[in-house]
Amino acid sequence: MTDISDDNSHKADELTPLDMIWYIQSERDRGALSFREAVYLVVGYIPVGQVLGYGHVAGLIGSPRAARQVGFALGGLPVHRTQIGHEDCVPWWRVIRSNGQIALRGDSIRPDEQASLLRAEGVEVHNYRIDMKTYAWQL
Questions:
Q1: Helix or strand or coil: residue 135?
Q2: 15-24 pLDDT per residue, tens
């Protein structure tokens, strides 16, 4: 496992995915990382062309019953963190319902944008659905 010092001098992108999950859970346990930032870190680790369900993200940060709150956190992203190419961009489009469906509630443009962004990464989207057996991120 990667050595993670308490002084936070490491960079998150230098950690393996499993080390990142361990780090997020330990930082949340000691109250040093907010729920939202934990969501953003996990989502930032989802590889291009893969997806996770809201509930899976919640479980990875140690809050397995907080799937809806993951959606609220992603829906409340500051604009600059949704802009592709920005250094702080959180790839929100890689998070879908656990059954493989893109959430259709809320912003009427967002489901089409999410499907388009996923297709650009090579994910097959049919009727706002993704095959989780093929595209779910396996840690």
A1: helix
A2: 898 999 999 9
Give, in words, the CATH class of 14-135: mainly alpha
Residues contacting residue 5 through CB under 8 Å, at least 6 positions apart? none
Using N-to-C axis directions, what is the helix angle for 67-75 and 35-45, rounded to 10°?
A: 80
> Within 13 Å and on the Cβ side, how many CA atoms surround 119?
12
Give residues with Cβ within 8 angstroms of 127, minimum separation 6: none
In the Cβ-directed half-sphere of 47, how many Cα atoms lie within 13 Å? 10
pLDDT band at residue 12 under the 50/70/90 scheme: low
Query: What does pLDDT average to over the chain?
Result: 90
What's the pTM value of the predicted model, to 2 decimals?
0.87
- 135 touches 49 (CB < 8 A): yes
Are 114 and 97 in contact by the 8 Å Cβ rule? The answer is no
Domain ranges of the chain: 14-135
